[in-house]
């Protein structure tokens, strides 16, 4: 009977360690990630898929129900999307403490992306590249303790004004999560 309890205890320790190790490795290196993008009312209006590329990561975004025009889009420091203002997503992802924007001599933030253009019918499809982030471990990983979020703003990013490129209010948000292998 004693051997049974020792064997059972050993099994549970191994099972717990396997779950812990699997979870930890998923946070350290992901083959891909995704975000369900919601509007201020919490309705899903799009998706983003994120994959490693030869120059950092590639983010493919498809959204609908947005105002037509050019909109800033950024990665933010907290994996929370509480509407309607999405301030829960925190500031721009900026592990290197730079200024905002590709045109700023002291920039860019790691989470700064190129603008997206929403068509007259309220839809947008964009493929964005970010050389300053990774799905692997380290300070530029999208999988840090607080998580990260993809945020779409009401106006275009001017690519230089700190802290957010004069891109206005946050109108859509998606928590970035590791995709299942």
Description:
The structure is a single chain. With 181 residues, the chain is α+β, with helices and mostly antiparallel strands. The protein folds into two domains: 1-30; 31-178, Superoxide dismutase, copper/zinc binding domain (Immunoglobulin-like), CATH 2.60.40. The protein is 15% helix and 30% strand. The chain has one helix and ten strands. The protein has one helix at 2-28; strands spanning 33-39, 44-53, 56-63, 69-71, 73-76, 116-118, 124-130, 149-153, 170-175, 177-178. The strands form two sheets. Strands 1, 2, 3, 5, 7, 8, 9 and 10 form an eight-stranded antiparallel beta sheet that branches. It has a two-stranded antiparallel sheet with strand order 4-6. Strand 2 (44-53) and strand 3 (56-63) form a beta hairpin. The protein is globular, with a radius of gyration of 19 Å. The protein starts with a helix and ends with a strand. The relative contact order is 0.24. Residues 1-28 have low confidence and may be disordered.
Would you kindly provide a brief summary of this structure?
It contains one helix and ten strands. With 181 residues, it is α+β, with helices and mostly antiparallel strands. Strands 1, 2, 3, 5, 7, 8, 9 and 10 form an eight-stranded antiparallel beta sheet that branches. Strands 4-6 form a two-stranded antiparallel sheet.
């Amino acid at each position: 009977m004693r051997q049974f309890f020792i064997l059972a205890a050993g099994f549970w320790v191994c099972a717990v360690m396997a779950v812990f190790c699997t979870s930890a490795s998923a946070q350290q290196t992901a083959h891909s990630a995704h975000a369900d993008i919601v509007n201020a009312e919490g309705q899903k209006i799009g998706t983003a898929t994120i994959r490693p590329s030869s120059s950092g990561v590639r983010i493919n975004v498809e959204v609908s129900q947005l105002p037509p025009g050019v909109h800033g889009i950024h990665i933010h420091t907290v994996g929370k999307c509480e509407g309607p203002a999405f301030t829960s997503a925190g500031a721009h992802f900026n592990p290197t403490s730079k200024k905002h924007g590709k045109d700023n001599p002291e920039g860019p933030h790691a989470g700064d992306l190129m603008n997206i253009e929403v068509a007259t019918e309220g839809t947008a499809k964009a493929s964005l590249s970010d050389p300053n982030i990774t799905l692997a471990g380290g300070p530029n990983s999208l999988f840090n303790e607080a998580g990260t979020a993809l945020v779409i703003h009401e106006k275009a990013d001017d690519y230089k004004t700190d802290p957010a490129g004069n891109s206005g209010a946050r109108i859509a948000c998606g928590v970035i999560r590791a995709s299942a292998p």
